[in-house]
Amino acid sequence: MFTGIVQATCKVEKIIEKAGLKTFEVALGTELLQGLKHGASVANNGVCLTVTELRDNIAIFDVMEETLKLTNLGNVKQGDLVNIERSLTYGSEIGGHVLSGHVHTQATVKTISHTAEHYNILLEVDEKWLDYIFYKGFIGINGCSLTVGEIEGNCFWIHLIPETLSITNLSDLQQSSLVNIEIDSQTQVIVDTVAKIMARKFAD
Question: Exposed e or buried b for every residue in 144-154, given b needs 16+ CB within 10 A?
Fold first, then answer.
């Protein structure tokens, strides 16, 4: 489990293509490496990956073909920065909201509005996911716990503060960039439960 509070952006030093997967070698700082062990879970752009090897300041992850297809890790290149968060430990402060590291879909950057007063991004998602996206609700974007802004059709705004921009890779986004989306699990359960109850009611 994760909190959606990104701890650092880390450089992908090397990507090795293998049959059915890619191996990512990611340079983690000393603080992130402290106590990290083989088999630990680490979120990369919001995707829960397992540490398969540790070497000096490098953590190595195998990314399966299905994950590459469903998330923006398939577009990551050597030298890119990925948002990193280590898994939640018992007793840790949850500053964001609980994330599983299982990406539901991707969203496309439609517009970036950057002025001296604000930094806003308009994201477009497949219409079927809008049932779970609410104004002022929680959402995970590239592993960042964020609050949903205004909704326009099948698009929604996010409003970023300087701190978020400084410690994540969201400041690197451009028009047409793809971001990983994790829907808030509690919202999904509530919406799906209500839909089932209503479907049964009208079926009677």
Answer: bbbebbeeeeb
Which parts of the chain are beta strand (E)? 8-18, 21-27, 41-44, 47-55, 58-64, 81-86, 105-114, 119-124, 138-141, 144-152, 155-159, 178-183
Pick from 125, 38, 32, 126: nearest CA to 84: 32
State the number of CA atoms in the 13 A half-sphere of 1 facing the CB.
Answer: 13
pLDDT single digits (tens) 38-89: 999 999 999 999 999 999 899 999 999 999 999 999 999 999 999 999 998 7
List, in order of start, the domains of the chain with CATH numbers: 8-86 (2.40.30.20), 105-193 (2.40.30.20)
Q: Do 143 and 76 form a contact (C-beta atoms < 8 A)?
A: no
Q: Is the Cβ–Cβ distance between 71 and 45 less than 8 Å? A: yes
User: Tokens 């209503």 — which residue?
Assistant: 198
| Model confidence, pTM | 0.91
- b/e code 182-203 from CB counts within 10 Å (16+ = b): bbbbebeeebeeeeeeeeeeee
